[in-house]
Every structure is written in C-alpha cells, then in structure tokens.
Amino acid sequence: MKRPILYLLVPFALGIVSSALFKASPAYTFSLTALFLLVSILSIKKNLLSHTALYIAVFLFGILYYQNSIILPGDHISRFASDTPVKVSLQGVISDDPIVSFTSYHKSKTSFVLNVDSVKEGGSWRESRGLIDVGLYARVKEPLHFGQKIIIEGIISKPVGLKNPGLFDYTKYLAIKDIYARFRVKEGDAVEIVSDRISNPVKAVAYRLRNWMRTVMDKHFEAPYSGFIKAIMIGDRTDLRYSLNNDFIKTGTIHAIAISGLNVGLIAAIFLGALALFRLPKKISLVLVACIMILYTFIAGSSPPIVRAVIIFIVFVAGYLIDRESEMLNSLAFTAFIMLLASPKELFDPSFQLSFISIASMIIFMPKINSFLGIDMIKRNSFWGKSRLYILSAVSVSIAAWLGTWPIVAFYFNIISPVALIANLVVVPALFLLTAASFIFLLADILSEFLAGIVAHGISAFCGTIFTVNHFLAGFPFAYIRVAAPSPEFMIIYYAAISLIVMPPRVEFGKLKLRRAGMLILMLLFFNGLVWSDALAIKDGLLKITFLDVGQGDSALVELPGGENVLIDAGSGGDEESFDAARSVVAPYLWNKKINKLDAVIVTHFHEDHLGGIIYILENFKVDRVMDSGASCEKSVIFDKYQRAVKTKKIRHEIMREGDAINFNGGTIFVLNPEKNKEIADCNENSLVLKIHYRTFDALFCGDASGYALERMTDKYGNFLGSDIIKIPHHGGNVGSEAAVKNFFDASGAKIAVISVAKMNKYRAPSQKTLKALTDSNPIIYKTKDNGTVIVSVNKESYDAKPYLEDN
After folding, report:
1. Residue 4's CB: how many other CB atoms inside 10 A?
2. Is 612 exposed, middle or buried (0-12, 13-18, 19+ CB in 10 A)?
3. pLDDT of res. 428
4. Of 34, 243, 371, 470, which is most buried with the most CB atoms under 10 A?
C-alpha cells in the first residue's frame, strides 16, 4: 500500500463531516466501529474485505471522535456565558500575542485569548477552564504580553454573530478555535497582572521578536506599506487596508498576504540559501532551518495555515534525515491526520481546506501539466532555456493550484479569478524578493537606523509597484467573476472528474474493473444533470421578502413575481476600514441567489445604518435605478459617497414621496411617507414608508419613521395601514408617545412583526415601550438579533414566514 495514511485520512474526514451534519448514538457508533475493526482483523488475508471493513471502521471512528470533541466539561467557562451579559472576574493566562487596534470611534482596543483557570461570580472564586475571546477597552498600567497571569473584571456573554443562511457565522468560526464565550473589559473595570512567569520560553522569545519586528516596521514604513509588510512577515493584518486586500482577492493572489505554505516555503528557501554560503552539510542546514521555522511559527502568530505548513516541512525534513524518500502525498495526508486528531473541527476551517487542497493539487496535477507543456524537454544549458523553464514551471504551479482551489474559493468568497493564472506569475516572484528584502531590512535596523531607513524606502517603492500592477490586473475585463457558492453535489462531481486526470486508464479492485473513460462519461452526465436542472428551474412567480440580519441596521430583499429584484436599504457601511453589512452579508447573499443585477435599490433615509452598505452594492452590482425621498436632512461623508456612486455609475435616480407607487405583476408598492411637498428637519421623520400589496397579502416597511410621521399616517390612512407583516420602525426603539405608537400598530393589525436590530446595541433597542405596544396587538415577533434572517414566501392564497432560527 503506497499511501496508507491517505487511504485512512479520507474515511476519517468523511466521518467528521457526517458527524457534523447528522447526530448518531455514541454507543451504537462505538459498537459498529469495534465490529468492523474486528472484521478487518479477522479477514486480514482477504485484502478487499479487510480493507473495506477497516475504512468503514475509520469512518465511524471519525464520527465518534468529532462528537467527543464538541462535548464541553461541566466547569467550562462557556457555562457562565448567556445571551444576557453578566459581570464577572476571570483569572487566567494570556495564551497568544495581544493585538492593539483602534475601533471605528478611535478608541484603543487590545484583543487576546485568555486561558481561564477560575471565575468569580457573586463574591466567590470557582475553578473553571477553557479559552475566552477578550476585548480590552480599558487602560492598563503595563503592556500585556503572552504568558502573563492576570485577573480581569468585565462582561461575559455568548459570542455575537450575524445569522444568515449560507453566510459566514462568527460564532461557528470561534467554535472551530475552541472559543465559546467572549469577554469585554470597559474603562473603569479592573485589570491586575498576577504573575509574569512564563511557562513556554520559546513562545515568549518568539512573541518578543514579533513585537520588536512590529515596532520597527511601524517606525520605518508608512501606510499602506506598513500594514502590507506586517501581514506578509508576521501575519498581523490589523493595519492592512481593505482596498488593498480586495485587489489581491480579485486577482486570486490573496495567499500572498495570508501567512501560509507559500510564505513558509519562501522563508525556508531564503534561510537554506543563506546557510549554503557557509557550506554546511545539507542535513545540518535542514535541521537548523526546521528549528528556525518552529520559532517563526510563533513569530507569525501561530495561525493554523503556518502551523500546517511548518509541520509539512518538518515531515519532509525528517524523511530526508533518515534517508527515506518521502511520498509527498502520503506525508501531506499524515500532516492533515495529525492536525485533525489534535482538533477535528479544523476540517471546517476554510484555510485548512485551501492549504491542503492547493498543495495536494500541485503534487497530483503538476506532472501531467508539465508533460503537456513539454517542460521535461526544455534544454537547461542556456539563459533562454532556464528562463523558459522558470516561466513554464510557474505556469504549471499556478494552473495546478487553481484547478484544486477555485471551487472552495468560490464557495467561501463568491469569486472566480481567471486572471490568477497571470497574476501569480508576477506576485509570487515579487513576494520572494520582498520577503528577502524585509529580512535584510530587519538586519539593517540592528546595525544602523539610517541604513534601515534607506532599505525601507526601497521596499516601499517596490511594494507600490506590486500594488499598481495587481490593481491593473484586477481591472482587466473578466479578471474575476462573481458567482453563487457551488453546491456540495457540484463540488463532489468536480473533484471526482478532475481526479480522473491522474487515474490509470483501468483500475481493478478485486473482481471490480473500472475504466477511466466510462467513469468520465458518468461524471459528465451527472454534471450536465446539475447544470440543466438549475438552468431549467421554473421560477414560482410569487412574491418573496427576505429580512436580512445585518446587525444594527436594516436591509430587505424583495423578489417580485415578474422576476424583478428590489433591495430596500443595505445596513451600515461606506467606510472600507469598518464593518460593511453589504460587503459581509447583503452582497454574498445576493450572489448565492445568482442575483448580479438589481432592478431597483430603495434607500429609506440617509442614516448610515441604512445607507452605508448601499455604496458597496452600487459599486458591485448592475443597478437599474435608485430611489430615495430626496430629503438630504443630514450632510455626511457617507451621503456624499452615495451621490458620487450614483453619478459615476450613471444610475437612474428617482425621488419618491407620498402618493407615488410602483406597479408590478399582480401588485403595487405604495409610498406613504414623507409628505409630498414638505421638508422636515428630522431625518427619521423623512423615512420612506412603503406598503407592498400583492393579491391578498400586505407588508408595511416603516424605515425609521417616528413621532409626527406615525401620527400623520395613522390619521390619514387608518385601515389602509392594515398589513400581514410589519417591519417595525427604528429597530424597535423609542419612536414617539406610547399612545401614538400603539395606535399605529393597532391600525396595521399585523400578524407578524420583524425587528431588525443588533444583539448588543448602544441604543438598547428594542425598547420596552415599543415591545409593550406590540404585545397589546399580539403579533408573532421576530428579532433578527435572535432569529436571524426572516424569509416571507407569499403564494396565491396565503403566506409563510420562516426565521433562520426558531429560538435562540
């Protein structure tokens, strides 16, 4: 058996996936595992039966192993966390390198992970354990660093994440890292350093070097170069600009600024080249570089991709030291198996998947691609021959990695980057030179600050060139394509089909004989079935409304019966360095629904939590027309960006006021507010209030309307406000007198109320007064902070409202 670990890894990983999707009885699974393992041992002389039983046993073991990994002990720190924040004190050890950043409101924030050993609640200390994500917004007397034992006082709660189907879930992301609670320390809360004694001196040295490198880079480089250099050298992406990061995503070269196997390979090559100058034996050089890479793992923040890459490097070095040629695919599988045994949840980390699949793709496909490109036939005794060899080898690497990773990139990032095949030929060699130059810069700083400044100036100029070229490539027609996340069925068929490239023409499993041509035809038939079933899918021709969870803000997608798509608001955003609801939620949701064009975008009013995300939508989607009230009650940077985007994209702009209407197939969108020829200073009062009428169904969208606007509409429209569903105004906050709010809700008579609100918001919305007024009219209340996305489907005679989470 040439690749024993690989053959065990596959069923083990499949078991982990199955366990995450379906619950199974641990006792039943354990019994089956033991049974199949026994069958495998007893039938060891019968290869096919023994191997089949063994793989089934390993698959079942994967199910058991994952189930065990998600069981938390009774004294785990997450047991103290709930949706309601509670004030407690924690004692524990800082387990990583604290990162200092600044919030959108320019307040210092120190982030780190605390390994808890005890918790104090209600006056007494109790033993506890587990990791917790800490955000420190208070000043401390001394800088915090790895290994310190501290006592901190603050608020503990469950992690807060947005809840939208098919999109990034921050809570699940933290769970992969074994973090199930968050802790926030505000100004005035106590922070006490108990001990500076460090149990891991290697890690402590590495983090000191990391902080020194960060300080030196901040001193000699200006933005955006400092953020870029810190990202590629120490994995600190705190100051990396979004626009820069976005260009690398578009060109498929994001691996260049995400510390990963590429960086490890480049740094190992640099140190091996430097040690070669001392004429050391290769085995000694490899051992020294392996030790350096272990230290560098901690310097780079011990991120999972770099840990994986260093483990792979060490496995290869170990194989060379014992004079045993390493079977690369088996070594890669061994590394993956070890990491999954350490933490099976890592399998669901996108970086884990991309790391291993990209390397496996290069190992598997490069020989075939090299043969196709005729690389083995190139004469290497001339400059042109060597140049051609380098270029074609780089092309081979790029094609092989792209073949393996594009479906995963498309699944997580909704993008395919054909230009990556060209961009990598530029970026990868440039990254090698930049990494080498950065080490020279660090050495220069030790010798002379003046010399370091000169080197830094040269590096900045080189970075500028890389940014310019990459931005130019990102602007190519069809350089990147926004797509829906591929289905699991598509990905299975795709990977099965491309695996046939390296499969022998004929494979025999005992009496079972498989021909590559026949299997390829079968895969193509399955693939065609998927494509045509999607293409021929009949639209139901009915109305659908999706209230998205965008945190503290509003956004709703309205899919009209005629196939038109209307977006009402897009949450907060507009500042590339801050959270953008459209970038993180609205746009990915639209792409996953194969929506790249919007027939209309409606802005209810110009507050940032409604307007901000619209800018990203206008820049990344084809929009036929934009509608708003025209009431520019507040001038702001976001409003100016919005106006520029509309003009730059030459989008039709329409002003809507009371009495206007949009007709669609089977229904009408009525505008109820603001008044036709009246300007009100308050921006919320000028909110567009819309009523969607379709057959026997009505939905009322209230924006942030409040006070006078609610009273006026109640008096003027009365029973016309009657609706099945109401989007509560102003996120359920205080919107006027108790009587006025109650009268408005009573007039609407809605059976379902949707409140778009963040879990923890400074406005403490929804208010008890608003909830009381709602309760009196007795609708079903869905809050996005608890229920996530709410999807309303309207058929000819009735409607159905489904929240993403029934209860939280």
Report:
1. 12
2. buried
3. 83
4. 470
Q: Rounded to an integer, what distance in angstroms lies between the CA atom of residue 416 and that of residue 484? A: 10
DSSP state of 24: -
pLDDT of residue 514: 65
Q: Are strands 506-509 and 179-185 parallel, antiparallel or unpaired?
A: unpaired
Token pair for 50? 């023994």
C-beta neighbour count of 772 within 10 angstroms: 12
In DSSP terms, which residues pair with 179 in a beta bridge?
131
Residue 579 contacts residue 572 (beta carbons within 8 Å): yes
Please tell me the predicted confidence (pLDDT) of residue 596.
93
- Those residues whose C-beta lies under 8 Å from the C-beta of residue 73, and which sit 6 or more positions away, are 129, 130
CA distance 307 to 313: 10
User: Which residue bears the tokens 């080189």?
Assistant: 462
Determine the angle formed by the axes of helices 449-474 and 201-220, rounding to 10 degrees. Answer: 80
**What is the pLDDT at residue 808?**
46
- Four-CA torsion 232, 233, 236, 241, nearest 10 degrees: -40
Contacts of 287 (CB under 8 A, 6+ apart): 317, 321
> Considering only CA atoms, which of 681, 674, 747 is closest in space to residue 709?
674
CA 439/CA 744 separation, integer angstroms: 67
pTM of this prediction exceeds 0.90: no
CA distance linking residue 359 with residue 368, whole number of Å? 15
| 120: CB partners within 8 A, 6+ apart | 88, 89, 90, 91, 126
Helix, strand or coil for residue 72? coil
Rg, C-alpha atoms of the chain: 29
pLDDT reported for residue 592: 94
Mean pLDDT split into 10-residue runs, the chain, 808 residues: 77 93 88 92 83 92 93 92 90 89 75 94 90 89 86 92 90 91 87 82 84 92 92 85 88 79 78 84 88 86 76 80 70 87 91 84 86 80 77 82 89 91 86 89 92 95 94 91 90 82 63 65 71 59 92 95 94 85 96 95 94 95 94 80 94 94 92 85 86 95 92 94 95 88 92 92 83 82 94 90 81
Q: Could you give the CA distance from residue 692 to residue 702 in angstroms, rounded to a whole number?
A: 11
Contacts of 176 (CB under 8 A, 6+ apart): 343, 345, 346, 348, 349
Residue 150 burial class via C-beta count within 10 angstroms: exposed 0-12, middle 13-18, buried 19 and up: buried
CA dihedral 403, 405, 411, 412 (to 10 degrees): -150
Residue 71 burial (C-beta neighbours within 10 Å; 0-12, 13-18, 19+): exposed
Angle at CA of residue 342, ends 339 and 344, nearest 5°: 80
| Residue 648 in tokens | 């730059």
How far, in Å, CA of 679 to CA of 655, rounded? 13
Chain-centroid distance, C-alpha 171: 11
